[in-house]
Amino acid sequence: MSTLSPVNRRRFLALAGLSTVAAGCGTALGGGPPGKGGTRTLRYQGWAGQVTPAELAQDLGHLKDVKLEWVGNTISGPQDIQSAATGQTDFGGAFNGAVVKLAANGAPVKAVISYYGSDEQAYSGYYVRADSPIRSARDLIGKKVGMNTLGAHSQAMLDIYLQRSGISAADAGKVEALVVPPVNTEQSLRRRQIDVAVLSGLLRDKALAGGGLRPLFTDHRLLGSFSAGTYVMTRRFVQQNPDTVRTFVTGVGRALDWARTTPRPQVIARMTDIVRRRGRNEDLDALRYWKSYGVAAPGGRIAGKELQLWIDWLAERGDIDRGRVSLDELYTNDFNAPAPVSPAASGR
């Protein structure tokens, strides 16, 4: 997730490391002892200079008596969910492909709510220079596409774009996906070191403000609005702390809805105040560019198709054994209580 750039998007680290941690996840307990009441404190990792949906939910009062305990920051979604899977934290978030791969490698995790995605405001775009001859998917054959990591969201969207455009697997294999650090992607494109740049969030907005670029496609144009990442907990933690999980998930869902329906300047002002008050010596500048969490469904409810897409893509690549992932076991909306409907909204 990223409140700054939804597919900056967790600054994806390579997925390969997920299989290593999964081996040690079978006995992960999560925080707090089992019991009738369970824990009411949730340990988590934050993101420097950003306000996560969970942090926003706490500040809005939607978590009620459930408290968040910050244990440090992360720069990686896969690392964040590894920490949750091994019991170092009680929840973590990552893009859905990382969640699927972690589960396929034996980690007993369950996705409980979506927390970032792609919409008209929060999306990843595939940009070319204004004078580029690239106008269609077929024009990408033999060209270089720069992205922040391989085997994750950006490469999956590229593959889907090529496939839906009728490009054969053999020709698609001639499109070269390259790793380019996000802060260097725009300049690599302008200097003609790559032919296409994947840009999102703050880096996208700054690049477009400089002119001379045009979109080939975006993930939002390709798939419409969709949620791209989920918060996960271990199945054991969920079983031992159902009331806490329900309060947390419902509260985060209401915070997502608040951010969606509240004027953007007001949301940014609230986020800025949160970051200032927590006193972690963070740069506030990036918050000015926040536009949306991008979550598709009200309350952050998870759509099975958003996880199934990754099961299919990773299995086709040979990255996972399809038989080791059960969609029904991978996620739940059972703890996501619907928001109360006002008389005006219900027509009464």
From TrEMBL:
SUPFAM superfamilies named in the record: Periplasmic binding protein-like II
Major subcellular location class: periplasm
Protein's cellular compartments: Periplasm
Keyword Signal applies: yes
Pfam families: NMT1
Alphabetical keyword list: Signal
All residue ranges annotated as the SsuA/THI5-like domain in the record: 56-263
Domain of life: Bacteria
Gene Ontology CC: one annotated term: periplasmic space
Segments passing through the bilayer: none
Family from the record: Belongs to the bacterial solute-binding protein SsuA/TauA family.
Protein name: ABC transporter substrate-binding protein
